[in-house]
Amino acid sequence: MSETPTGEKRVIGPRLVALVGPFQSGKTTLLECLLTRAGALSRQGSVRDGSSVGDSSAEARAHAASVEANVASVDYLGDRYTFIDLPGSVEFAHEARNVLPLCDAAIVVCEADERKLPALRMILRELEDLGVPRILFINKIDQATMRIRETLAMLQPASRTPLLLRQIPIWQSGIVTGFIDLALERAFVYREHAPSEVVDVPAGEMPREKEARYTMLEKLADYDDDLMEELIADIEPPRDQIFDDLTRDLREGLVAPVLIGSAEAGHGVTRLLKALRHESPGIAKVRARLGVADQGPALAHAIKTIHTAHGGKLSFARVLRGAFSDGALVRSAHGEDRISGLSRLMGLAGSKQGKVEEGDSVAFGRLDHVATGDTFGDAKAAAPEPALSAVAPPQPTHCIALTVKDRKDEVRLAAAMSKLSDEDPSLSFVQDQEAGELRLYGQGEMHLRVALERLAARFGVSVEAQKPGVGYRETIRHSVSVRGRHKKQSGGHGQFGDVALDVAPVPRGEGFTFSEMVHGGAVPRNYFGAIEEGCKDATEKGPLGFRVVDVAVTLTDGSYHTVDSSDMAFRTAARIGMSEALAKANPVLLEPILNVEITTPSDALSRITAIVSGRRGQILGYDGRPDWEGWDVLNALIPEAEMDGLIVELRSATAGVAFFTQKFDHLAEMVGKSADAIVAHHNGVKAPAH
Fold it and tell me: Which partner from 117, 347, 505, 612 sits 20 to 30 angstroms from 519, CA to CA?
């Protein structure tokens, strides 16, 4: 720690700062500007023309949006910062959940756009729950039409923490030409892509400045009794006292400071950097938040996994304690690895390091036993440290079925998907044996599209995507009695099995049951197991073409041959009899119904209700989201067949913030033209006319 000229304590040591904010708020442009202003870049690149450090992947540039975390380390006035630009789209939000707990602070990039408030609220709520200090940067101030007081009033409902306005804009002919820093009591005039010029506070702005400054001091005084007494006594507080309060209140999460600027034009960025330098906490605060002791062997936490074409696996991690050297042996809960390279990242590029210290955020090479979210440390320590926090991936909201264009790529597909899932745990790849499908699950249409683009570009595996199948079933409505008989002579021992079966429907959800009521030894007991298996065989594909459920089978009679009867013969006889019974017992199609819980802003509830109803959904009710004023949770029953693309519609209706969870509820009978069409399509025949 050291003291600044104003007296507040300043952190010395590497820091990790997240850039977060709603979709297209300007985070990547701000990263570019921060790097340029800190001297890491000679010229500010542009997201629009594809020359930025962030969004440097082919997928990000193709979609003109962040689709993964982008990392850049820079030295500024003797301090090291690693900025990590996180995607704004909710489809890639899981990327942030592994990063944010390890950050010293977050810059929340936002703008005066009421449509983005629900997304901003979700971001701020997560930071608040994690206890991560945060600075709001109101971007695009040069395009503002709303007064800053009105903007602050609009943004405040998104934050449970008071927003503390630190700067006010200077207006000239309806255009923002600079700002006044309320703590420094200095005015700054914007210069294009250069640090602002310090000027005297214009005389005409003095009344606004005094009023805004007093409002700021009043808010600080809520947490400082001495300052409150000074304000009551009309005593001007010393500047160092104000900066001490600003620093303490940010670090303790009592307030969220609000700065203004324009990332594209480079306005207000130097003041943002200096606020980070003087007021943001360091690694000791992160350790305290995570419950990690200050003393002990070297310890790091992996927050992102990257598979590179030539460098192999990289584990981007934060050093929580101690130091690591290239070539050192480390251990996680899954095994030991030797560090094969340490690199500070600047987008896709890296600079080799021989040793990294406490607080550093770097890429560790070839840690095969370390996954995203794992803690690892010095292998000489007595035991590997447990994971600091388990960040479970969210439940999937979108699914596609994959077919490889070239069958020889099936093995490569599984290996490639394993690496993609390693990088992004919110992706899951499943081989559905029953449906005979390879399925990819994720957080939305764009999420899966990007995964397929990476699959083709990085691993050379091309696939075709289609809508996944639905888990239809069938059952019976009537009880029947049948005889199943299998007799075959082919020289030597023959095959003989004979069974009498009663087959009946049972209540939904009871599955398959088998019992016997054979008297007089008509069928020896040792064949009962084979008969049950034969009946089950017949339920794998019923007369409608689907798996049969909720039936009870009773073996009532039969006959056997002392020489020709066998397990296989009785299994075959049972399958023959069961197949006949199912066809006679009035089979009916069953479709799976899911219980879906949709979370949405309240003002979109009517639109969400209409979407659910349009998908044959049954509304069960809705209630307010606990501790989330202005949000509702709607419960509904929706057929599985109607779930495809639901998340796309929900997000379209809610500026990208609605989400849902689902679970199987029950199977419902389906009859009429729709059922006939499903059966015909499944069996590859033309549906009957009605």
Answer: 505
For residue 326, the SS3 value is coil
Q: Is 385 exposed, middle or buried (0-12, 13-18, 19+ CB in 10 A)?
A: buried
User: Is the distance from CB of 601 to CB of 118 less than 8 angstroms?
Assistant: yes
pLDDT at 57: 87
Residue 602 token pair: 């309240």
The per-residue DSSP string of 407-419 comes to GGGHHHHHHHHHH
Output the CA angle 249-196-200, nearest 5 degrees: 85
> What gap in Å lies between CA 534 and CA 259, rounded to an integer?
73
Question: How far, in Å, CA of 678 to CA of 470, rounded?
Answer: 10
The CA distances from residue 569 to 12, 534, 547, 577, in Å, are 81, 10, 23, 12
Nearest to residue 641, comparing CAs of 671, 616, 607?
616
What is the residue type of 668?
A
Question: Which tokens sit at 368?
Answer: 């095969």
Q: pLDDT (tens digit, 9 = 90+) per residue, 157-210?
A: 999 999 999 999 999 888 999 999 999 999 999 998 888 999 999 988 999 999
Alpha carbon 9 to chain centroid distance?
Answer: 36
Burial label, 548 (beta-carbon count in 10 A; 0-12, 13-18, 19+): buried
Give 10-residue mean pLDDT values along the chain (690 residues).
46 91 94 93 82 85 90 94 95 92 97 93 96 97 92 96 97 92 95 89 93 96 95 94 96 97 94 95 95 94 90 93 96 94 91 96 96 93 71 92 87 92 94 89 96 93 94 97 91 87 96 92 93 97 96 96 92 97 98 98 97 97 94 98 96 95 96 94 70
DSSP letter, residue 632: E
Find the length of the chain.
690
- Separation between Cα atoms, residue 404 and residue 455, nearest integer Å: 11
**Given phi > 0 = left and psi -120 to 50 = alpha, else beta, which region is 221?**
alpha
Closest C-alpha among 340, 337, 321 to residue 329: 337
Cα distance from N-terminal residue to C-terminal residue, the chain = 82
Tokens of 662: 């689902």
DSSP conformation class of 262: B
- Non-local (6+) Cβ contacts of 254 within 8 A are 161, 162, 223, 248
> Are 476 and 441 a contacting pair, CB within 8 Å?
no
Give the pairing of strands 175-181 and 186-191.
Answer: antiparallel
For residue 59, the cross-strand partners are none
Q: For residues 445 and 432, what is the distance between their CA atoms, to the nearest angstrom? A: 20
What residues pair up with 377 in beta bridges, in sequence order? 299, 331
Reduced to 3 states (helix: H, G, I; strand: E, B; else coil), residue 404 is: strand
What's the one-letter identity of residue 256? A
What are the two backbone dihedrals, phi and then psi, of residue 445, each rounded to the nearest 5 degrees?
-60, -45
Q: How buried is residue 223: exposed, middle or buried, by Cβ count under 10 Å (0-12/13-18/19+)?
A: middle
Report yes or no: 74 and 34 within 8 Å, Cβ to Cβ: yes
Element (H, E) at 168: strand 167-172
C-alpha 120/C-alpha 293 separation (Å) is 33
Q: Give yes or no for a contact between 243 and 6, defined as CB atoms under 8 angstroms apart.
A: yes
C-alpha 463/C-alpha 95 separation (Å) is 25
CA–CA separation, 553 and 81 (whole Å): 70
Q: Among candidates 113, 203, 120, 189, which has minimal Cα distance to 150?
A: 113
Amino acid at 7: G
**Which amino acid is it at 390?**
A
